[in-house]
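User: I would dearly like some help making sense of a protein record. I have put the entry right below:
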Amino acid sequence: MTGRASWTSEARASGLMVLDATEKGNHPVYSKSDGLIEQEIVGDSLAIQYVLNQVRIVAKTDSMTLIQGETGTGKEVIARAIHDQSLRNRGPFVKLNCAAIPGPLLESELFGHERGAFTGAFAQTKGRFQLADKGTLFLDEIGDLPLELQPKLLRVLQEQEFERLGSSQTIRVDVRVVAATNQDLSQLVANKQFRADLYYRLNVIPIILPPLRDRAQDIPLLVEYFVTKLSARFKKVIDSIPEEVMRILKAHDWPGNIRELQNVIERAVVLAPDSVLRPALTELKQMTKQRSAAATRTLAEAEREHILEVLKQTDWLIGGRDGAATRLGLPRTTLVYKMRKLGIETRRSSRVRSVQQKHDTEPPLFERAAASGLPTERFRAVANF
């Protein structure tokens, strides 16, 4: 079977999937097209292919990009792919996890400091923005950025300039920023935990990564990829995977997403006594949810449900900066087409209705003028004219 691990007649009889090294050249996992798969972006499901298509388009621009997704979905991998496909790929790719550094030190990490700027500052130090000049700065866990630093970050994003701690000299840079979060930033904005202006500045191009449970068809490819990578790393030979193992792996919910799957495969490779992959499945079996109608829904049903959910979040507002089309990363006309195709009827947003109701319930012009003590003759004259 081209582009997949092979099932020989003997393997079928024994319930083993054999990893055929001769097929690796044409396998989606081993393809080097676009330089994307080199960064471990594995899968041929529509969900991940849609993301990859967004990456190809966005990478050629310098637009601010916000990658959103659950923990373990590969946000840093996508950020690296954007950099590698961009015109800045010869420049540096600099990473900073905003949640991993205490607030008082984060400003120095971002902007740098002069010697003597604070206790322990024994030498001038460049910050991540300056280190990323002519390249890309990846700000992971941006939702954990302290509120007091957010105006300073906003200024750099808008003006591409800043001052080091302890200095009044302005430094200009040319940096493309890609941010990522596993939090709902719009909810943080509503809770006054994140600045609205910074959110809108970051959310120019949103890329939403699907959780692994929504791309179960990619699990065999991911398993093959990790088995090949890790068996080479640990110098072990793993050439077959029991069918029952693959079935359970595909049925598992994977709350830790790709990172959890990688850890399970690594543990199985390390502990494998022979060439057959046999991960400890007891825990996975206990956690695996029973198949339901929701688990066997079609792609169209899943897409329809997702669009409906986003429409509800935006109060059925389709266009505009806060509309559903922007959140889905689609042109307005494309979303309208998809809605018609999926049988989703358009509804008037309550924002539009409230404006219309206000207009309908307002008293006539003459009554409002009279109530305000203004002479109505000139209004009548204009109306009669």
About this structure: The first helix runs from residue 9 to 14. The mean pLDDT is 81. The radius of gyration is 27 Å.
